[in-house]
Amino acid sequence: MSGAAEGDDNGKTAVCARTMTVFIIRRLLQSLGVLLATSVIVFLGVFAIGNPADILIAADATQAERQAAIVALGLDRPLVEQYWIFLTNALQGDLGRSFVFNQPAIGLILARLPATLELAFIALLIALIAGIPLGLIAGLKPQSLVDETIMTGSILGFSLPNFWQGMMLIMIFSVWLGWLPAGGRGDTTQFLGVTTSLLNWDGIAHLILPATNLALFNLALVIRLTRTGVREIMPLDFIKFARAKGLTERRIVLVHVLKNIMIPVVTVVGMEFGSIIAFAVVTETIFSWPGIGKLLIDSIMLLDRPVVVSYLLVVVFMFIVINLLVDIAYSLLDPRIRLRDAQ
Amino acid sequence: MSTITIDDLQTHFDTPAGVIRAVDGVSFSVERGEILGLVGESGSGKSITGFSVIGLVEPPGHVAGGRILFQGEDLIGRSDREMRALRGKKIAMIFQDPMMTLNPVLTIETQMVEAVRAHDRVGRTEARRRAVEALGLVGIPSPDERLSAYPHQFSGGMRQRVAIAIALLHRPDLIIADEPTTALDVTIQSQILSEIQKVSQNFGMSLIWISHDLGVVASLAHEVAVMYAGRIVEAGPVDTVLDHPAHPYTIGLLRSIPANLDRGEALQAIPGMAPSPLHRPSGCPFRLRCFAATAICETEPAESRNGDHRWRCFHPQNEARP
Amino acid sequence: MNALPTRWRLSPDSTLSRAIDGIITSPKAAIGAVVTILLVLVAVFGPWLAPQNPYDLGAIDFFDARLPPLSPSMNGSIYLLGTDGQGRDMLSAMIYGLRTSIAVGLLAGIVALVVGTALGLVAAYVGGRVDALVMRLVDLMLGLPAILVALMLLALLGQGVWKVILALVLVQWAQFARAVRAAALVERNKEYVEAAVSLGLSRPRILFGHMLPNCLPPIIVVGTLQVASAISAEATLSFLGIGLPITEPSLGLLIANGYKVLLSGQYWISVYPGLLLLVLVFSINVVGDRLREVFNPRFLGR
Fold it and tell me: How would you classify residue B33: left for phi > 0, otherwise alpha for psi between -120 and 50, otherwise beta?
């Protein structure tokens, strides 16, 4: 710590903005590095291991077609040259054509991506909106019946097999009660160039069950995180000091405690967003939601490898972006981090 | 009417291992504008006494008996709502570690403005103005800029000044300071001490200064009370107690302060350790470490006094006679 | 505090006794442990307990297909939980499915435990570049969603029991490695390691004979939770159709079979295997959660 003179102040607003820019640039470069490394791994996985011809050329092609494709794909060239072709093609957005749909694979993925993202975001919202209050309640009354119930409920939440739970939701709400549709996306509307299900009742009705299904394991995580956070913050001195100032318990919890908890919660949940995208594979399959998850499973089943490769790269790219956003959010939320980078 | 009069305060902790009488019959009074130094080792119950006054004793602790008369009204049994109205407004508290006292993720402004608005219905601008004024009072330069800073951007001494400023926002009648300078450098310590002294004189505040450091108390307080094992063993005007200490424990404390001795003279630590709060010896709790203890000390010593000077001992030293 | 009779009493400080004590003193965990043990016993003695062998084509009757629970069979006995699309008794299919689920989950968990623990110990002890490399790998593995990695792997490798186990191990070893490494780092600085080194003991002996026993708590906690996670993951993979082949059906596959007829109201084919899976995973998780509380040094403000 500074043995500096009284009144030492090592942070000013101008410095803050500058360090933020430096920070972002640094992370962007790192991310670029990771993307490059991933591209190498994917390339090696697809082009070098096993017989790339089998992976990239439709299984039912004739000998002549295969030979032509091999030359066209450059599979008879040295590995490094192949990687270069792969990379340049990838950068131009060309990741091969789907065997099944005979369209550029990347186009298929990007067309379905918004549906998955919409589902994922709503699921995340549900997890946060339901999870944080429940975790707060559990944390504020430790060892009580409420606490035990919520915590056991959270264990149940991450023990429930995702797919079975989805099926049960369909069974209860669609088959028996008939309240909600059993699958599909329903009507969508265009808003600012984005297709969304949120602006009409039919779309929302179709969204509820799959989003809830996807939210569940994250909900359990948020509850536990929040509860742990509350238990850690409450005994600290600044809470006592806040009471000594005469603040209401309500303000103490909602402002002092919550702001401190948000940091770990947001960080972990942000990283878990990747898991949500991954689990969307299951949810979309069960609810026939037209997103990239369903596309992935179908493609794996149908051996449509270019689509699988495209999925991989797009998803990895998304993860990198998410990680970057989480880091930025983290440094925004915790003022101590911002200035440490400045020094 | 004194600002605060504590009468036979009992604060107990119910633990699975037994009842801990952290505060075991403490009585004292602080007048308007007076500074009382409450001195003792860790575990003596001095901090709990402070928390008991402001009503922040946490379960399994609870005030089990006695009276806390604040401006004539007993605080014990008051509802939480009533206590909350007092806290920060009439009775303020300053803690030991300023880093942990201020919420690290909120700005100073937020934490000061909320303290103002907890008790007064004023707008943000007015609250902010009062915050700036308070920061100025404790000697923080360019207070207006400092408001938007976060706690970790301040040095330790500055943070403690902020905590003091917060305590002063409503010009409380009583400030309880729980070892506020223990975590600070010695030079900063003396600065803070003089600030506090000045402020308390200017505003006529009563101050209970809790410390384990007799030296600090000597330079600051009007009255001193020495605590041991949950009880006050000696109390009186600071000069009387320090120049003519009656209780062997006080003498022991004085002897173990380096500043009190001439160069080359040996430091004398008090032999033994403070008793575990669960297993206090019967009678006088200090008797197992006391150089003057005899058989009679196995019974409870009553309080004796000589004017303002009082003590609980069968063998008062330095010709202290009741 | 140890609730067992004196002659069974282990040293109260030993990890095992703390674990058992922790479970016994929590009603939730105790029930979870009992249920888990029961289910394991059912799995072990499955072939003797099941009313029929669902994979013996001679024993099943196609005409009994899709009967709801408590229906009588052609030969007079009652199908307690109904039959599936092939006429198999659900109860028997579930018992056999349970066997497979537990076997695969346990095996994957144990192999991941061994691999992860070894790597974690070595990384902590050797330090330097080896440690940095292992940690980077661990960070990478833990950053990627498990399901995705398993999916990709199986998409590349194809189906098969051992491939599934391999995929699960790959996805799970990192949890062990990280936890064990953290514990081992603490142990490495303790005096008994210094003493062992000065006695000239070989590295493997120090690692596995001395440090390992003190790293047991995280291994037990992570192990329990990971077995549950492996069982769950395998079920998901089987459901998606890229897990175990249909010759070795687990509960996941049973549920998948029932998925197609769910909408027509024949719920029992999916619901009961799902419930069984839920009870199994939940019980193990409750025990694991309790163990985590017991062994967590940050036992604050509980």
Answer: left
Specify the amino acid at residue B305: R
pLDDT in tens, A54-78: 656 666 667 777 777 777 666 666 7
Which of B84, B93, B106 is the closest to A248 by Cβ?
A: B84
Q: By the CB < 8 Å criterion, does B28 face chain A?
A: no
What confidence category does residue C12 fall into, taking pLDDT thresholds of 50, 70 and 90?
low
Arithmetic mean of pLDDT over chain C: 81
Q: What is the pLDDT of residue C197?
A: 80
ipTM at complex level: 0.81
Interchain touch B–A (≥3 Cβ pairs closer than 8 Å): yes
Question: Within an 8 Å CB–CB cutoff, is residue C28 touching chain A?
Answer: yes
Cα B64 to Cα A149, B48, B61, C15, distances in angstroms: 34, 13, 9, 41
Residue B190, judged by CB atoms within 10 A of its CB (0-12, 13-18, 19+), counts as middle
Out of A155, A271, A286, the one facing C286 most closely (by C-beta) is A155
pLDDT, one tens digit per residue, over C43-55 is 888 888 777 776 7
**Does the structure show a pLDDT above 60 at B303?**
yes
Instruction: Say if the Cβ atoms of B155 and A244 lie within 8 Å.
Output: no
Fill in the DSSP letter of residue A182. Answer: S
pLDDT given at position C231: 92
Report the gap between the CA of A227 and the closest CA in chain B (Å): 19
A2 touches chain B (CB under 8 A): yes
Report the alpha-carbon distance of residue C145 to residue C233 in Å, rounded.
Answer: 12
What is the rounded CA–CA span in Å between residue A331 and residue A322?
14
Neighbours of C169 (CB within 10 A): 20
